Amino acid sequence: MVNGRLPTREETQNGRALIYVDPAKFPNAKPIDMQMPKLASYYNESSRKEELVIVIQALNILKDTVGFRYLNGGYGSARLAEITVLKENEIDKIAASNFVSLSILIEASQKAIWDILTNPGYYTSLQDIFDPQGTANIEWNTTSKVNFKYVKPGVLTSEFTANLYGNQYIQMDFKQGNDSYVEKFLLLENEETKTTELKIVCGPYSLDDFEIQNEILKKWAQKVK
User: Fold this and answer.
1) Domain 100-224 carries which CATH code?
2) What is the value of pTM for the model shown?
3) Residue 131 CA to chain centroid, in angstroms?
4) Cα(108)–Cα(120) distance, rounded to whole angstroms?
5) pLDDT (tens digit, 9 = 90+) per residue, 38-57?
6) 123-130 vs 207-224: helix crossing angle, rounded to 10
7) How far apart are CA 58 and CA 65, in angstroms?
8) Helix axis angle, 110-118 to 207-224, nearest 10°
9) Do strands 75-78 and 49-60 pair parallel, antiparallel, or not at all (unpaired)?
10) pLDDT per residue over 94-111, tens digit each?
11) Of 167, 174, 155, 172, which Cα lies nearest the Cα of 199?
């Protein structure tokens, strides 16, 4: 995160900040007086639910804007009025969750990997990793945006696919009773090295299921590679 000034282009590329502002185009842009990081809640229109975020940037270009990381992976931005900064007593009430978070470097273009993730033609070859018994019928995949399936996710409540700042992204949210489950897949391409980083965040999982799903997702990512 960057406090008290606007971030450099390098800082937006290494994850310290999210939004780069060209001072030549926006000479009046300035940081908002907010000490970061801040834990906040944000209503995500795509998943249609309140999500926890870590605010890493706050600035005023033409209007106030904050950049944040979702607690369970991924980035976003919003107006300052669209987030609610949590108080200390509210933070203390948040229960710990078990998310699988993976990053794998692949020597391929973003376009090639995106095709493997989303083309139903690859579903069968990947299915053995997460569903060796074949309980998830191939017809199921016609309604999904990615060739992966947690065998007990609950009811699909929303799917979101987009190109975010030049990077392909998929998010799927599920609900089972009072419990929520999310899958996030992000591709970050480096055109200079001709490599792409596949970032995966899935969960939360119960304590007895976490290690199992961690291994499944590792093997699935290697199969994609």
Assistant:
1) 3.30.530
2) 0.66
3) 24
4) 19
5) 888 898 877 677 888 888 88
6) 150
7) 6
8) 120
9) unpaired
10) 656 688 989 999 999 999
11) 167
